[in-house]
Amino acid sequence: MKETLWTLAALISHWRRRPGNLATLVLGLAIATALWSGVQALNAQARDSYDAATNAISGGGARTLVAARGGLFDQQLFVRLRRAGVDVSPLLEGVVRIGEKNIRIIGVEPLSLPRRSPIADRRARTDVIEDFFSGPGRGFAAPQTLRRLDLAEGAQPRTERGQQLPPLAALAEAPPGAVIVDIGVAQRLLDRPGKLSRLVILDEEIFDEARLKPIAGDALRLVAPDDDSDLARLTDSFHLNLTAFGFLAFLVGLFIVHAAYGLAFEQRLATLRTLRALGVGPPHLVAAMGFEIAVLTLLAGGAGVLGGHAIAQALLPDVAKSLESLYGAQISDRLALDARWWLSGLAMAGAGAALAAASGLTKALRLPALSLARPMAWRGAHHRYLRRQAALAALALIAAAGAYGFGEGLASGFAIIGLALLAAALFLPVGLAGVLALGERFARRPLARWFFADGRQEISGLSLALMALLVALATNIGVGGMVEGFRQTFDRWLDARLVAEVYFEAATPADARDIEAWARTQPDIAAILPIWRAKTRIGGWPVDVLGMTPHETYTAHFPLLDATPDMWTALHAQDAVLVSEQLARRLGLTVGETLDIPTSGRDWPARIVGVFPDYGNPKGQLRIDHEKLTRYFDDASGVHYSLRVDPGATTRVIENMEQRFGGKITRIVDQAEVKKLSTDIFERTFAVTTALNTLTLIVSGVALFASLLTLSDMRRARIAPVWALGATRQKLAALEMARVVAFAAGAAAFAIPLGLFMTWCLVAIVNVAAFGWRLPFHMFPAQWLVVSCIALGAAVFAAMIPVARLARAAPTGLLRVFSNER
Amino acid sequence: MSIDTTLENLAAGRTSAPMLRVEGLQKSYPTPQGRIPVLRGVDFTLAAGASLALTGESGSGKSTLLHLVGALDDADSGEVVLDGVALTRLSENARAAIRREKIGVVFQQFNLIPSLTVGENLGFQARLAGRYEPAWQEELTARLGLATLAARYPEELSGGQQQRVAIGRALAVRPRLLLADEPTGNLDEATGDAVMALALDLVAATGCAFLMATHSERLAARLQRRVRLEAGLLATQ
């Protein structure tokens, strides 16, 4: 034990002498952990919120019955089941707008709630229950929901449709962004009289599935508690994307750790050999190094997890807004992370540190006590190192080709990207060494020859930092290209899709009919186009069905990816349907095939006459003739419309309608506002990606800076002889700067084709698998220029301090190299 | 000169049971042209308190022999017995323990730990072996003239000062055997002589056996006995 402790003391003394190296190591590990755990915190927070919504009502672990084709079902079904002795508790869920916020309304029947539900506990308090039923009733909301709505307990806010909520009470167990009310109140607030969305099974032991069929027929289907909710399934790709970027950032952080630990190992190689010569056995050496790693993990991992918390806190509002606007998911805006998250963050830090230190530990275990005064022996193995890098790069490339050829889906897409990045990163030092060798061959002046020859020597020390820079640059080019391409496509698509000048939602179908009748008499309104919608479920996925009337608004503008020549005629005159791209891809549908669409009654077989892009929509969408929508779907909304208005009269029409119909109109917006809302959602969706991208680039800059700083002492031993032979310090400093900038330029040159490949993978594989849409591939040379400039800027910035140190180095400092060189 | 004669001559210096016994030691190194023998059967003994100088040309195998005797490397065949323990039959960990507790080595390149101060370097091996004696450490520091340098780092010392630290570190553990590989090779003549005198003085004080490899016939003459390594074999002088 004492040997291990004294060995540890000797090892740790290295950090005392080189605090900068220690800071780099801790910083790298902390940043890597922070980025990873930050992303995990966002995912955990979101998933907990999804689960909380279910668990708050059912207490978790309960199966539920839902409408077989999605959407709502009739309350009478519940009544019939209860009368037949099937123990179930009804639920109705929906969203209302209070002020500018979407709030989920959960209607429950408190007396039949499962005993394990936290809300059921409240039954013990008679006054609460009485309140729930009597008078204005009672609504329960989480304290954070009340804060978000800026309401105190007892407040009775109104929805956008003018419905008043019962007095609100705080309930910690309530899901975030939701208000729990009596089911009758929910039906009123949501304007869904006599409708339910779920039935929770109360006692699994006595529940008999066979009794369902005679009562409910095929109207209901059982959902297991461990089945992902629709929300979880819809948001899965979003979270997977976040995880992928978090992991990428973690890897870039690990490059720093690996570089810092690798350099520390090389710097301590002489010490390690001396320790071995003085009688420290390999197990003691490895134990001391392992202990050192463990302490670093605790220090840096702890700081990283705290940093991750801060990152998650900073990004949470954007993520919450993205999830809400894209998927209608309500996420708590206060991070509540359990011990598992903290421990997994530390475990990730430990795994990262162990991975980064693995080669050092292995070398230490095999380190002979001899080869004493050869601290830089590894540099002699430079060619072996390059050959190994090239071989590994080739292997990674073959594996990427294998993933492309044999894999499919999102995992395969990310595997291809990851392996291609790895291959390029591994090949970078080989390529740079080749270029420098070429330069050396053609250089005539001795200093130029030294410049190239010494550059080759420096590559192995800087290679990890350069790899990190390459990965970060390629990711920025790749993701930036995808986002910019998506933005352009999205803008064009939005222009084609949002042709109508005004969009409104009536409070009720009856109100809608009044408005419709009025609109037909208005000279400023050229057309009133109902966009009623209904819900169904195809292949296990939720699908919205929207109606279309025959009008030039659609025939001239509606964007399509594929269609039959007679598409518009067929859509209105025959049993025909337009299918959204993501639904078509998910179900493998093509134009000309027939799709059986579950309706309120039996399935309706419709011929697919077109496929349309539907960017940003996680659900599937079908477009059918308006008349058929009203015929086949009893629960078609009947409240959504668009208006074709003389563009100069838009404001006047909206003001008129608001004045005339007041509360009969829930929402009315002009085209510009809808577009702004859509582009805001788009920007927010990519805000987190952009933030992670920028952080990754910063991390790689830090890696380069740290490596250069750590190498600067070792560089002195190489530069001093050249200085002694007559080169000025300033000239040598300028050459040092030129070399670092050349390396960064090399990394940027590698990064451009790699980034383009990454963009292609993202648009052609990842987006298709994750979201179901394929984007056109665009190139943005201006973006490459910006990223390249950033790379060069980062290199200049990173090299500035070490180079300035060299330029100002006192001759005594350089002379010491000769007197103390070991 | 035969091995027997060498042994006979060396036996004359024996005053008690040998501290170090080397028998038939052979070592060769692989090269692209095949294995090159460096030691071809070296035999000698060294008693506690005795000193032996090992001379020979560059590449004659002096350092190799020192490394084998110091349990730093493996022999192809033969035996090294230190204080009754056959080093060649020990495991890696057991040999590390022997190095730690019984052998002090003064390397030509000093091999001080750059991140430890002079004081910490001096006591390091003794602490490692659990044999740290503050009084002995203090005496060594004073006699080696390092008292004012204890808080400095090796890179802040001259070559002679670093050599004295290396000698102090090797002796602080009170080794049974002190090995020195060209201990004054990096020093000027006067400094080398002074360091050598001090080392011999301290060796006498600890009573350890002392084996030194050197180019310098002048330095070799200061030890009780000297042998020359030629063509992988020992020859007495």
SSE topology:
The complex is a heterodimer of chains A (822) and B (237).
Chain A: H1 2-17, H2 19-58, E1 64-67, E2 73-74, H3 75-83, E3 88-98, E4 101-108, H4 126-133, E5 139-141, H5 143-148, E6 168-170, E7 178-182, H6 183-189, E8 195-196, E9 198-201, H7 212-216, E10 220-223, H8 230-267, H9 269-277, H10 282-327, H11 339-366, H12 377-380, H13 382-406, H14 409-442, H15 446-497, E11 502-506, H16 509-519, E12 525-530, E13 533-538, E14 541-548, H17 552-555, E15 562-563, H18 567-573, E16 576-580, H19 581-587, E17 594-598, E18 603-612, E19 620-625, H20 626-632, E20 640-645, H21 650-661, E21 665-670, H22 671-724, H23 729-770, H24 781-807, H25 811-820
Parallel strand pairs in A: 4-7, 5-6, 14-19, 16-18
Antiparallel strand pairs in A: 1-9, 1-10, 2-8, 3-4, 3-9, 5-7, 11-20, 11-21, 12-20, 13-14, 15-18, 16-19, 17-18
Helix pairs in contact in A: 1-2, 1-10, 2-8, 2-10, 2-11, 2-22, 8-11, 8-15, 8-22, 10-11, 10-22, 13-14, 14-15, 14-23, 15-22, 15-23, 15-24, 22-24, 22-25, 23-24
Chain B: H1 3-11, E1 18-31, E2 34-47, E3 51-55, H2 62-69, E4 77-82, E5 85-86, H3 92-102, E6 103-106, H4 118-128, H5 134-143, H6 159-172, E7 177-181, H7 189-206, E8 209-213, H8 217-220, E9 225-230, E10 233-236
Parallel strand pairs in B: 3-8, 3-9, 6-7, 7-8
Antiparallel strand pairs in B: 1-2, 1-4, 4-5, 9-10
Helix pairs in contact in B: 4-6, 5-6, 6-7
